[in-house]
Backbone:
């Protein structure tokens, strides 16, 4: 195998860059892979913080008033702050950096056959702003008054005035952190879009681009278009908080509902901003391990674009009962239910991809399949909530909470694990241990369902969100309901414990894992042409040219069941 | 980095990468200003009394500032014209003329702010003035950034006769800033 | 389905429950179908060494029909859900039956004040009964409520009524409900409203006509004290506004 030999040589070459100091190589590097890792490890560290928060407030709910191990007593203010920052962290500092920034940075240049992003220094700046935002957020927990506790939606006037939220420093710091994070991703997004538009390998046409790259680009565009009004709103809210303007203060002629519109105009597309990269990752993994061409690539692509456009017209389904004109609900219920169509097309196409395949149950594939099953639950439960009539009752209950955890957990956690198990050999040149991977998989998936299925029931029984102790509500204090809360909490602890095998597996595999050659999964896309791990510049043997689409598995004209994009074949190079 | 990045030199779309990126920057800025203007308009429709507040803005200064900005946009077009001929002297000259007019704009803006604040119309007077200062302040910040970047291009790049394409890129940005003002001027100054 | 978890105590609770069930059956059908096909495919096409995967592009018309047909069916289901949603939404939030009694609800950090109309059935008169964290209503009576907040967003939620409505500072928000089951249940605040949001609860008492009349008789304030309460609240909100402006 000549490929393996070159891979090893290239691997050794990699160590020649010893003149570079640790700082310039790993901290201030402009290499897209290093920046991707920086995003990934920062995201994982933030996920640990977010998970710890979840542990603390779930313990408080299961055993109200008792001291939580590794935390202590949970005061109402602390509870609110934990809930708020759990949500903020998981969305802005885990899902976004890991799925879009880390995977985008790592994959885009490799998969389009290029050596780096088109603006490497903007890329580095984007990470530095992101890191700063994370530091500001963490610092906000330790200022007098504590961290912001007005929910991640930060509705004014609560978020706008310290006399209401009692966090004079926490609230502005939270807002500054979120705004910085947004700026970081705007910079990163422009880089992603421009890179994919301009820096593709020779011969790579629109429909030869791997679907994950499409998804990241569409997500970046969605983010850019949706977040602008929120940036304006954040500036206004920040002025309200710190300078004392009255943009959102009804008593001085402002309009508090305006913030809700600005927030949800961003907030709903944001769901798709993180969903799309995860869908893309799952598509890559499914095609590789089912040895199948992606079913109806173009249809998926167009459905995605339709989904993106439609997502700008659904925001007020978060505000059915918020006092806006009730007639608006007719419009937004319609658009919300219509959005089930593109999502259904995508999911059906994914399921159809399995038909006639030859499915290998590697850990990455198990995670990818579980993404589909779990996200399906998250998707269908959205129908109850999108129907304004039922939403009157279910709004702000645990039903909503369970619904969006069934979407965000597959996206942020399962999507991330899928990507890590699949691209680990490319990232670090070694494979992760499959046995431990499967233990991690089953432990995580089973306990995840055990957490959130009881919460659907609790929500349907009228239990509202963001309440630190249900013993104050006689209808909710019953023993059977409390048992469900305890069960969910224990499941959460079990799930968190099952992440330990992953972390150990990750660290041990970095050093002792089985060595991976260039293309351990026999996949088609261009990143598998580069050595594992790719050196600076990615393609030491020359940049690949593209001759065909990314999913030509099991082609009848071929002996092998895969056909790399860069391999000249019986088709002429397309330019 | 010692490594020469080939990514930047590729151009699958046929549009130079720098210009493409500037267009995307402009796109994202459109959504930011669009959100702010939409928020202002929503409030304006709810509050008829804002017409009296708007009457207190100086249409004269606003009009003169519009003139400075439009003229500066013309100058930056001329600068681009000379940059395509690789005429460093003329390009620099017109870039600096653009910066000068941007400076006029900022100077008039400060006089205007000074007059308004001394007449008791501050950021906190009411929400019309909050919007007024936020919108014009954010716009002024963009003018200032454009001036600084233009100065860097004039002295760093054009003087050394390199990166000629940057003149066009800053021109696109400058036109965008100009167009934002074309929206703000009638909404804040003229509509009464 | 919901009634197994908590009682339905208002007229429109039944309709919302019915809509919930309707969606459950439709969505449930599709969910189990999709998940069934999914698990069948995963099991059927697991790797066998002698079998090579099939080459299916999904681009031919016939193959696309495999996705298009179910997606048209889903569109039909969506339309059915939409129509019934519109009917329910219209009845609950838009079409208000004429009021038989009124109640004014003031939500503030972190308590509810309910202004009952008293013996004359009219709000704003001397015999209004103000109660903190207790709402007393008469069964089988159409109530119109006015929801107010002097400080931040709150949400008036009565799970047994399937009723929820946000309170917005600076606005009077109106709505209606008609209790039809006697009992005593929770009222919750459903919108994050600050530190003690977690204990901002109240109780609703739905009583028969006689019991309700007896409660009114026992709680009707003498004319003066009613004025006092009204004044106090006004002073409070005045003080609140002074704070805001200061």
Residues:
């Amino acid at each position: 195998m000549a490929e393996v030999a070159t891979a090893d040589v290239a691997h050794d070459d990699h160590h020649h860059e010893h003149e570079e100091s640790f700082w310039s190589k790993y901290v201030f590097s402009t290499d897209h892979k290093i920046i991707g890792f920086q995003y990934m490890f920062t995201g994982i560290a933030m996920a640990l913080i977010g998970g710890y928060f979840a542990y603390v407030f779930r313990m408080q709910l299961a055993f109200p008033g008792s001291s939580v191990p590794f935390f202590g007593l949970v005061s109402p203010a602390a509870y609110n702050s934990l809930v708020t920052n759990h949500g903020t962290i998981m969305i802005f500092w885990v899902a976004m950096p890991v799925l879009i920034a880390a995977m985008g940075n790592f994959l885009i240049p490799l998969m389009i056959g290029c050596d780096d992003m088109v603006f490497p220094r903007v890329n580095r700046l984007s990470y530095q702003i992101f890191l700063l935002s994370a530091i500001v957020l963490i610092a906000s927990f330790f200022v007098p008054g504590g961290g912001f506790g007005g929910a991640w939606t930060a509705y004014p006037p609560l978020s706008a005035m310290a006399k209401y939220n009692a966090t004079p420093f926490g609230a502005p710091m939270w807002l500054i952190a979120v705004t910085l994070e947004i700026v970081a991703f705007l910079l990163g997004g422009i880089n992603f879009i421009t890179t994919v538009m301009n820096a593709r390998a020779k011969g790579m046409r629109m429909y030869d681009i791997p679907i994950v790259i499409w998804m990241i680009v569409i997500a970046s565009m969605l983010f850019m278009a949706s977040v602008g009004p929120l940036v304006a709103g954040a500036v206004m809210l920040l002025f309200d908080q710190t300078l004392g303007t009255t943009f959102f203060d009804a008593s001085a002629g402002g309009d508090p509902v305006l913030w809700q519109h600005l927030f949800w105009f961003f907030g709903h597309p944001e769901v798709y901003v993180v969903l799309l990269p995860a869908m893309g990752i799952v598509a890559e993994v499914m095609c590789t391990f089912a040895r199948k061409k992606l079913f109806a690539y173009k249809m998926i692509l167009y459905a995605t674009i339709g989904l993106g456009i439609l997502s700008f017209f659904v925001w007020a389904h978060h505000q059915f009962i918020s006092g806006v004109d009730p007639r608006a609900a007719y419009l937004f219920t319609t658009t919300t239910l219509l959005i089930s169509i593109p999502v259904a097309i995508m999911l059906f196409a994914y399921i159809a991809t399995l038909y006639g395949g030859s499915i290998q149950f590697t850990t990455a594939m198990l995670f990818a399949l579980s993404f589909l099953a779990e996200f399906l639950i998250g998707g269908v439960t959205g129908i109850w909530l999108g129907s304004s009539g039922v939403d009157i009752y279910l709004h702000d209950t645990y039903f909503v909470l369970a619904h969006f955890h069934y979407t965000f957990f597959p996206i942020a956690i399962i999507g991330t694990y899928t990507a890590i198990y699949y691209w680990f050999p490319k990232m670090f040149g070694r494979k992760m241990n499959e046995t431990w991977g499967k233990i991690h998989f089953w432990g995580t998936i089973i306990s995840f369902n055990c957490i959130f299925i009881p919460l659907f029931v609790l929500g349907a029984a009228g239990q509202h969100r963001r309440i630190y102790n249900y013993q104050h509500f006689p209808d909710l204090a019953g023993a059977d309901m409390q048992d469900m809360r305890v069960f969910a909490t224990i499941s959460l602890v079990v799930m968190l414990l099952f992440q330990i095998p992953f972390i150990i597996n990750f660290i041990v595999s970095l050093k002792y894992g089985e060595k991976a050659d260039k293309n351990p999964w026999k996949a088609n896309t261009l990143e598998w042409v580069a050595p594992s791990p790719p050196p600076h510049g990615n393609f030491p043997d020359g940049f690949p040219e593209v001759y065909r689409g990314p999913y030509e598995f099991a082609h009848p004209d071929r002996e092998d069941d895969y056909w790399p994009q860069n391999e000249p074949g019986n088709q002429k190079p397309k330019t | 980095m010692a490594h020469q990045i080939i990514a930047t030199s590729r151009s699958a779309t046929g549009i130079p990468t720098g210009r493409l990126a500037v267009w995307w920057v402009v796109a994202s800025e459109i959504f930011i200003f669009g959100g702010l203007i939409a928020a202002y308009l929503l409030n304006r429709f709810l509050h008829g009394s804002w017409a009296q507040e708007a009457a207190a803005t100086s249409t004269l200064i606003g009009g003169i500032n519009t003139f400075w900005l439009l003229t500066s946009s013309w100058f930056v077009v001329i600068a681009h014209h000379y940059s395509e001929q690789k005429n460093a002297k003329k390009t620099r000259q017109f870039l600096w003329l653009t910066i000068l007019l941007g400076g006029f704009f900022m100077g008039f803006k400060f006089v205007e702010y000074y007059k308004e604040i001394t007449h008791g119309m501050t950021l906190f007077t009411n929400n019309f003035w909050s919007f007024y200062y936020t919108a014009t302040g954010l716009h002024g910040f963009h003018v200032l950034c454009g001036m600084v970047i233009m100065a860097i291009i004039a002295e760093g790049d054009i003087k050394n006769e390199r990166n000629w394409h940057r003149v066009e890129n800053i021109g696109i940005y400058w036109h965008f800033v100009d167009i934002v003002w074309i929206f703000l001027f009638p909404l804040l100054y003229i509509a009464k | 389905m919901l009634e197994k978890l908590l009682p339905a105590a208002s007229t429109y609770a039944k309709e919302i429950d019915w809509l919930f069930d309707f969606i459950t059956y439709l969505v449930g059908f599709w969910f189990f179908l999709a998940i069934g096909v999914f698990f069948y495919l995963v099991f059927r096409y697991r790797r066998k060494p002698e079998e090579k995967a099939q080459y299916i592009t999904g681009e031919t018309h016939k193959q696309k029909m495999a996705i298009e047909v179910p997606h048209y069916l889903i569109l039909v289901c969506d339309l059915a859900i939409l129509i019934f949603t519109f009917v329910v939404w219209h009845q609950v939030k838009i079409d208000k039956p004429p009021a038989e009694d009124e109640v004014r609800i003031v939500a503030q950090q972190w308590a509810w004040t309910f202004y009952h109309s008293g013996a004359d059935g009219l709000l704003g008169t001397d015999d209004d009964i103000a109660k903190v964290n207790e709402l007393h209503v008469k069964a089988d009576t159409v109530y119109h409520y006015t929801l107010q907040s002097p400080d931040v967003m709150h949400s008036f939620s009565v799970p047994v009524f399937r009723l929820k409505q946000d309170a917005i500072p600076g606005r009077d928000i109106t709505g209606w409900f008609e209790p039809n089951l006697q009992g005593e249940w929770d009222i919750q605040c459903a919108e994050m409203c600050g530190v003690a949001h977690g204990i901002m609860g109240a109780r609703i008492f739905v009583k028969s006509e006689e019991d309700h009349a007896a409660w009114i008789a026992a709680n009707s304030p003498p004319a003066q004290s009613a004025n006092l309460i009204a004044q106090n609240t006004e002073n409070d909100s005045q003080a609140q506004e002074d704070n805001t402006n200061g």
